[in-house]
Specification:
The chain is an alpha/beta fold. The protein is built from eight helices and seven strands; from the N terminus they run βαβαβαβαβαβααβα.
Length: 241
C-alpha cells in the first residue's frame, strides 16, 4: 500500500490544451486517488481559445471533485499558477502542466518525503524540448541565480508538491514565466528547505508550447529585476544592505 496524504489539491494550468485534456484527466483520476484520502482536481483555463473549458465541463459530470477556474483572457503562466494556489483548499498542493510531458505515477516518490519536507521539487533528467526553449531556461536560471542565489537544479520544472501553509500566504507578483523562480526565492527567504527529485520528461504530442518565445524570457528577466530592486530597496530602508 502506498503512503497516502491526508488531502491533496492537484491543479493544471492550461492554455489551448483541448487535445491533451481528456488524456490528462483520465490519467489523473486513475493515478492520483492512490496517494491521498481526499482529492480535488483543478484546471486553470488561462483564456484558451479552443475547447479546453468545454472538455473539463464534460468531465465534471462524472467527477464532482473536478473544478474549473477560467480566465476570460490569457493572463500568463504566473497568473494561472496564482489562480491555482488560490483555488486549492486542501493540505497539500501539487501542480504540473497540462501538456502530458510528465508521468503522474512518479508522484509516488514525492510523497515519501512529506514527513520531513514541505516543498518537494522535481528536476528534469532528460529535458524533451526544443533548442530555443532549453536556451531560454538556461538563461533564466543563470539570471535568477545571479540575482537571488536560489540554486535549485531546475527552477521552472512544472512538477512540484507543496504544503498549502507555506505557499498560500505568499504574495507572488509575477504573472509570467518568472513566477516559479519568485516562488522558490520567497520560500527560501522563509527558510523553507527543498527536497529535489529527478523526474522524466517527454516530448509534447499535441498542441504547441509558448515557452520558446523570446519575449517570455525577456518578460521573466524584467520581472526578476523588478523584484530584485524592490528587495534591495526594502533592505536599504531596514539598514540591512
Amino acid at each position: 500500500m502506498p503512503k497516502k496524504l491526508s488531502s491533496l489539491s492537484v491543479f493544471f494550468p492550461a492554455y489551448n490544451e483541448e487535445a491533451n485534456m481528456p488524456h490528462l484527466l483520465a490519467e489523473t483520476f486513475e493515478v492520483m486517488p492512490k496517494f491521498t484520502r481526499k482529492l480535488e482536481v483543478i484546471v486553470v483555463n488561462d483564456g484558451s481559445q479552443d475547447k479546453t473549458a468545454q472538455v473539463v465541463k464534460k468531465w465534471q459530470k462524472k467527477h464532482p471533485n473536478l473544478k474549473l477556474v477560467s480566465h476570460r483572457e490569457n493572463k500568463g503562466y504566473g497568473a494561472a499558477l496564482k489562480s491555482g494556489f488560490k483555488a486549492a483548499s486542501y493540505d497539500w498542493i501539487f501542480f504540473t502542466d497540462a501538456d502530458l510531458q510528465f508521468d503522474l505515477k512518479e508522484f509516488s516518490k514525492f510523497i515519501e518525503y512529506t514527513d520531513k519536507y514541505k516543498a518537494v521539487l522535481g528536476y528534469r533528467v532528460n529535458r524533451a524540448e526544443g533548442f530555443h526553449r532549453a536556451l531560454n531556461a538556461k538563461l533564466l536560471k543563470f539570471f535568477v541565480d545571479a540575482l537571488f542565489r536560489v540554486h535549485v537544479k531546475d527552477i521552472d520544472c512544472a512538477f512540484k508538491l507543496l504544503k498549502a501553509d507555506i505557499i498560500k500566504p505568499l504574495k507572488l507578483e509575477s504573472d509570467g514565466a518568472f513566477v516559479s523562480s519568485e516562488m522558490l526565492y520567497r520560500l527560501k527567504k522563509n527558510k523553507v528547505k527543498f527536497k529535489q527529485l529527478p523526474v522524466s520528461h517527454y516530448p509534447r504530442k499535441w498542441g504547441s508550447s509558448t515557452g520558446a518565445n523570446p519575449l517570455v524570457i525577456l518578460r521573466a528577466m524584467r520581472d526578476a529585476f523588478k523584484i530584485y530592486w524592490q528587495t534591495k530597496v526594502g533592505r536599504l530602508k531596514e539598514g540591512k544592505w
